Amino acid sequence: MSWPAALDPAGVQSARIAALWWWFFGVAVVVWTLVTVMTLVPALQRRRRASLPLMPGGEPFLGSPSGSQPGEPLVIAPLVPHDAARERRLLVVVTSLGVLTTLILVGLLIASVGTGRALTSEFGKEALEVDVTGHQFWWEVTYPNDTPALQVATANEIHVPVGKTVRVKLQATDVIHSFWVPRLHGKTDLIPGRTTWMWLRADRPGVYVGQCAEFCGYQHAHMAFLVVAEESGRFAAWLGNQRAPASIPTTPAQTRGQEVFLHNPCVMCHNIRGTIAGGAQAPDLTHVGSRLTLAAGTLPNRLGHLAGWVMDAQGIKPGSNMPTNRLSGADLQALLAYLRSLT
Amino acid sequence: MPACWREQRLFRGSEPSSSAAGVRQSTLSPGPAEPNLRYELPDASNAYAIAQGKRLFSWYNCVGCHAHGGGGMGPPLMDAKWIYGSDPEEIFATIVEGRPNGMPSFRGRIPPEQVWQIVAYVLSLSGNVRMDAAPGRTDEMQIQKPENMRHRAVPQPAPGAHP
């Protein structure tokens, strides 16, 4: 059994958040145990008869309302006799517990503020920039570069080098989304009309799952992404591959598949660099064959899933903007061969 | 109309999408009388369909020639003058077949159910859909009232159109 992602940090910020969580948890357990004990113990104690006040006839006074006879004054008598020393002890105990509670809360506040400040510790460092734009219901990822030929556009997958600060620029096109990779950091919203920033650093290689953390519509629950942290050599190789234009079809099936792509609704929304398909509304498919998932983490990137996604996206992810398509069997097979060749 | 029907999300498109090939542009035919095929476009009373039409109107770059209804290189769509007819079937044919003088043909590029959504949105630009189904705001610069507040521009019959 593994820890929940937020308590299994792999980056500097999530490590601080997890540490704060454990402090809060520890303090809460201790306080809760004390309070429970101090509530239950007196409640379960049997009241000894000897401590009750006695009536003139010798029987214990259990507290009955006086004033039942006409003209008799109403007297409210306490069940416990007045004991000044005990009262003073109680006063000291309760006051000191109140002071202790305040001190604990102030301490937790200081820890919180300190953690909040530590979350920005990567700000200002030399960083790789990644631009993430949130759409309904997928993540557009670009690696900007001053040289246009070196720019990279992909979707739903972010590769970062291990141990290096990454500055993520967050924007949205339609509604508010939120970027959350629990093993690396907390949540930061992507707000239309506004740019927000986040600094990440993955300290261990691995594949970290992220998801949208702000309800954005019908398929908010299926808007995941992956952050792949790899050592610098592999990252550079990946980036170099992404910069290249799409693979040219080599087999007859792939050639036919490219024709199918360009003569069907695909070409209206999708972009494959190196062909005339230049749609800007849907994920970039230039290197779709080498991605780990499809449909923003909803499906594994395998042949059957890709076929289902192309033909009946509304059955898999109803409410997403991918339409259902009508292709003949032969056309579909050719298209799949072409898309899977785009590694 | 109950809001549950009006707001229903028909993700695979509504009924006419399968009848794309059977769209007629005239109710006249020889032999026995055909039932009146001028149907009420289901999408025109479905708020989700019209909203999708609005999205697709921008995505597929209809705004490039028609702007947001005001026209430019293409004719305006928010007025009462319909060169090629204002019936849903005629607008469908305009989009799918293309028209002389520059309207491209989108056959094979836009799936039929999406064309019907765009047809419903085009009708809303001139106030020709139910007010409670038309969109209420736009994300672009507002040129006039939102679609659900437009007075209905009653379509003038196109020259030579069927009755």
Quaternary assembly: heterodimer
Q: Order of strands in the sheet with the most strands of chain A? A: 3-2-1-5-8
Euclidean distance between termini CA atoms of chain B: 29 Å
Please tell me the total number of domains of chain A.
3
Write down the CATH topology of the domain at 41-135 and 152-163 in chain B.
Cytochrome Bc1 Complex, Chain D, domain 2
Q: Flag low-confidence runs of chain A.
A: none
Sheet of most strands of chain A:
5 strands, mixed
Order of helices and strands of chain B: HHHHH
In DSSP terms (H or I, runs of 4 or more residues), the helix count of chain B works out at 5
Helix content of chain B: 25-40%
Architecture per CATH nomenclature, i.e. the level-2 architecture of the domain at 41-135 and 152-163 in chain B: Orthogonal Bundle
As for the CATH topology of the largest domain in chain A, it is Immunoglobulin-like
Beta-strand residue fraction of chain A? 15-25%
Q: Name the pair of protein chains with the most residues at their interface, and give those residue counts.
A: A-B, 16 and 13 residues
Q: What is the global morphology of chain B? A: globular
- Rg of chain A over CA atoms, rounded to whole Å, is 33 Å
Radius of gyration of chain B: 15 Å
Please write the CATH class name of the domain at 41-135 and 152-163 in chain B: Mainly Alpha
- The CATH architecture of the largest domain in chain A would be Sandwich
Largest sheet of chain B: none
Mean pLDDT of chain A: 91
